[in-house]
Amino acid sequence: MVDQAVVERKLMLLAEYVQDLKEIQQITFEEFTSDKRLRRYVERTLHVALEACFDIGSHWISDQGWREPSTYREIVIVLAENGIFTMEQAGTYQKMAQFRNLLVHDYAKIEPEILLNILRRNVVDLEIFVQRFEQLLHNGAN
Are 67 and 78 in contact (CB under 8 A)? Predict the structure, then answer.
């Protein structure tokens, strides 16, 4: 059985991170590239948002007794295999796992243009993640 309190706590944090990112999505390229503190804020907020996603997914998988993923990318595959996401959505979240690894291991290589594009285009995917797991918590698994 899923520990609802744990998942709810992580979802609440994730929703907060998503809201924080949405509040600055309309920043101009010039403002973004000229403000290193803002770039670092976006990097860190995206990082903790992605960590929350993968923590939630991993927790859900464990509680359901599904096969154990060995990577962040595989977490979303296991979720898709079990009907939590479509394979198309899983592809999007796999790219997020790759980006998470870039944030953690190759942070010096992140171009501001890429970061700004992710901020503008992919925060909605984090919202979808929150909505899906809130639905699962309130309506039962799958």
Answer: yes
pTM, rounded to two decimals: 0.92
Tokens representing 94 are 């796999």
Under a CB-based contact definition with an 8 Å cutoff, are residues 131 and 103 in contact? Answer: no
CATH class of 4-139: mainly alpha
Domain positions in the chain: 4-139
pLDDT of residue 138: 86
DSSP assignment letter at 37: H
Who contacts 41 (Cβ-Cβ below 8 Å, separation ≥6)?
A: 24
pLDDT at 25: 95
pLDDT along the chain (142 residues), means of 10: 84 98 96 95 97 96 95 96 96 94 85 94 96 90 50
3-state secondary structure of 85: coil
d(CA 110, CA 89): 24
Distance CA 39, CA 44 (A): 9
